[in-house]
């Protein structure tokens, strides 16, 4: 297991930052500023990042978690502990997808050693999350099926989460 610090956290890593008060950098001096304009403040516990771009960051995937929907290109401050960073290997399946059918929330997460979920490549997981969101929030795709839409959603999404099958292949079983 890698130990991450200010010297290596930006080298092929995945991390979920937690949104913190935007005034953090009013009270703390910037220790590093990237070419793209992001500002960083390092502590023994982790790193604070002030940026207007999250997601794909150079060779990393850094997400900003928030209770509210965040607009792209707005500046926000996020904090991540050093233990929140994971090695990102584009050639390995390291991500699983979670779905809450009641709240219609879906996301992808880096595998944990104790987890036994079906794993995907980062890019594949991200694309599947977008497709699952459509399945959860739109109804037009289901108009030609004769099954109850909620039962159909559950069946299709459950299989999609636990296989390498294409969405069209799974849907065809229910037509």
Task: Describe what you observe in this structure.
The chain contains 4 helices and 10 strands; from the N terminus they run E-H-E-E-E-E-E-E-E-E-E-H-H-H. The chain has 175 residues and is α+β, with helices and mostly antiparallel strands. The protein folds into 2 domains: 13-87, no CATH class; 95-172, no CATH class. Strands 1, 2, 3, 4, 5, 6, 7 and 8 form an 8-stranded mixed sheet that branches. A two-stranded antiparallel sheet has the order 9-10. Strand 2 (32-33) and strand 3 (39-42) form a beta hairpin. Helix 2 packs antiparallel against helix 3 (149-161). It starts with 12 loop residues before the first strand and ends with a helix.
Concise summary:
The protein has 175 residues and is of the alpha+beta class.
Strand content of the residues, in percent?
Answer: 25-35%
The helix-and-strand class reads alpha+beta
| Helix/strand order | EHEEEEEEEEEHHH
Shape: elongated
Counted beta strands? 10
User: Mean pLDDT, as a whole number?
Assistant: 92
The largest pleated sheet is described as: 8 strands, mixed
Helix count from the secondary structure assignment: 4
Low-confidence segments, ≥5 residues, pLDDT <50?
A: none
Question: In which range does the helix fraction lie?
Answer: 10-25%
Kindly report how far apart the N and C termini lie.
46 Å
The number of domains is: 2
Radius of gyration: 19 Å
Chain-wise SSE layout:
Elements: E1 13-20, H1 24-27, E2 32-33, E3 39-42, E4 46-51, E5 55-57, E6 60-65, E7 76-81, E8 86-87, E9 95-100, E10 105-110, H2 122-137, H3 149-161, H4 167-172
Parallel strand pairs: 1-6
Antiparallel strand pairs: 1-7, 1-8, 2-3, 3-4, 4-7, 5-6, 9-10
Helix pairs in contact: 2-3
């Amino acid at each position: 297991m890698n130990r991450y610090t200010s010297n290596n956290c930006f080298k092929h890593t995945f991390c979920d930052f937690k949104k913190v008060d935007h005034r953090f950098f009013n009270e703390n001096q910037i220790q590093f500023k990237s070419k793209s304009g992001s500002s960083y403040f390092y502590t023994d516990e982790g790193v604070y990042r002030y940026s207007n771009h999250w997601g794909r960051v150079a060779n990393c995937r850094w997400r900003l978690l928030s209770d509210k929907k965040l607009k792209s290109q707005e500046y926000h401050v996020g904090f991540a502990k050093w233990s929140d960073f994971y090695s990102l290997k584009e050639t390995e399946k390291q991500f699983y997808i979670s779905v809450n059918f009641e709240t219609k929330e879906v996301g992808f997460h880096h595998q944990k050693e104790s987890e036994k979920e079906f794993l995907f490549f980062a890019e594949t997981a991200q694309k599947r999350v977008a497709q699952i969101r459509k399945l959860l929030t739109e109804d037009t795709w289901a108009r030609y099926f004769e099954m109850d839409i909620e039962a159909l959603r559950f069946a299709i999404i459950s299989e999609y989460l636990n296989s390498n099958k294409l969405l069209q292949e799974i849907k065809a079983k229910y037509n």
